[in-house]
């Protein structure tokens, strides 16, 4: 066990030494990987901020419940008060048929009902939902529509569905871009490792002659690929944070013009750690395939 740990530590030191041996080439490689990481990460951060901006700017939709004509005002008011205990309901407001007529008159539409012998409007309830999620809104609408005192439920949430559909499309595009650029990151690492293997071909062949296993030879290169991936992930994170910082003043000015206080949110620790883990894994995979292919080629000769 101690020998195994000692060799891992030695492989890590060897990989770090190789990483520092060519600083200029390493810098350019890390920058290329950083740009490949920054593109999907930046788009993901943009979607998160758009979602925050939309959630802060848009009001929650309201459901309008029209009660049946035989439901009295007292019964309707009790029903409205009982709805406040629903976990999916934030608030309710009971509107009697007399209040409805007065609203029509205030809007200049009182002549529509002036010729009728009785007030044609039913009692109604305005329901403010606790969430703006389209699925939960639709479920709440169907549940309220099934109540015995409710004649009809109106919900205008088409714009919420359109916005969520656009954000969902954006997330799918970010995922597709992340996969493509992740493959590019692995290919960059594999190419770098392959060049190192060719430069150290004689050393590897001597190590094989004295009994070194493929795993023993592969291990320092794997660590190198992981270190290169983590460095590229950090570079990508720095690029995204610098881009957000440079846009902060412009975004604040636009938000102020609309009377909204909004600031761009960057990547926190919860986003940074998965980003570095994915970058390290892609670098490790690129190194693994590059070394495995090179070792198979050496065995042929």
Structural overview:
Helix 2 (23-57) runs antiparallel to helix 7. The protein has two domains: 2-57 and 162-300, no CATH class; 63-155, Alpha-Beta Plaits (2-Layer Sandwich). A four-stranded antiparallel sheet has the order 2-3-1-4. It contains ten helices and four strands. By secondary structure, the protein is an alpha+beta fold.
Fill in the keyword field for this structure.
single chain, alpha+beta, Alpha-Beta Plaits, 2 domains, 73% helix, 8% strand, elongated
Would you kindly provide a brief summary of this structure?
The chain is 73% helix and 8% strand.
Task: Write the topology of this structure.
Blueprint: H1 2-21, H2 23-57, E1 63-67, H3 73-83, E2 89-95, H4 97-106, H5 111-114, E3 124-129, H6 134-145, E4 150-155, H7 158-199, H8 201-209, H9 214-257, H10 269-300
Antiparallel strand pairs: 1-3, 1-4, 2-3
Helix pairs in contact: 1-9, 2-7, 2-9, 7-9, 7-10, 9-10
How many extended strands?
A: 4
Unreliable residue stretches: none
C-alpha end-to-end distance: 34 Å
H/I helix tally: 10
* Radius of gyration (Å): 32 Å
Sheet of most strands: 4 strands, antiparallel
> What percent of residues adopt helix (DSSP H or I)?
over 70%
Anisotropy-based shape: elongated
* Fraction in beta strands: 5-15%
Average pLDDT number? 76
Q: Strands of the biggest beta sheet: in what spatial order?
A: 2-3-1-4
* Computed structural class: alpha+beta
Order of helices and strands: HHEHEHHEHEHHHH
Number of structurally distinct domains: 2
């Amino acid at each position: 066990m101690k020998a195994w740990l000692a060799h891992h530590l030695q492989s890590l030191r060897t990989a770090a030494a190789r990483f520092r041996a060519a600083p200029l080439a390493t810098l350019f490689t890390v920058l290329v990987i950083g740009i490949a990481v920054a593109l999907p990460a930046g788009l993901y951060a943009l979607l998160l901020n758009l979602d925050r901006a939309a959630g802060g700017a848009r009001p929650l939709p309201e459901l309008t419940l029209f009660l049946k004509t035989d439901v009295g005002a007292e019964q309707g008011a009790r029903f409205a008060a009982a709805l406040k205990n629903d976990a999916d309901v934030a608030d309710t407001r009971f509107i009697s048929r007399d209040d409805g007529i007065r609203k029509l008159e205030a809007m200049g539409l009182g002549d529509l009902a002036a010729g009728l012998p009785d007030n044609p409007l039913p009692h109604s309830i305005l329901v403010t939902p606790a969430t703006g999620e389209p699925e939960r809104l639709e479920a709440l609408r169907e549940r309220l529509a099934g109540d015995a005192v409710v004649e009809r439920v109106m919900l205008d949430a088409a714009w919420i569905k359109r916005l969520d559909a656009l954000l969902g499309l954006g997330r799918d595009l970010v995922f597709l871009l992340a996969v493509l650029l992740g493959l590019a990151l692995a290919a960059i690492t594999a190419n770098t490792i392959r060049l190192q293997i060719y430069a150290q071909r004689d050393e590897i062949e001597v190590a094989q002659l004295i009994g070194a296993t493929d795993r023993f030879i592969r291990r320092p290169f794997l660590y190198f690929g992981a270190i290169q991936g983590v460095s590229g992930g950090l570079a990508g994170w720095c690029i995204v944070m610098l881009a957000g910082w440079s846009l902060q003043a412009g975004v604040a000015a636009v938000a102020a013009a609309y009377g909204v206080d909004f600031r761009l949110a960057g990547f926190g620790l919860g986003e940074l750690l998965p980003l570095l883990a994915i970058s390290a894994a892609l670098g490790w995979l690129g190194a693994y395939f590059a070394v495995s292919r090179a070792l198979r080629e050496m065995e042929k000769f």
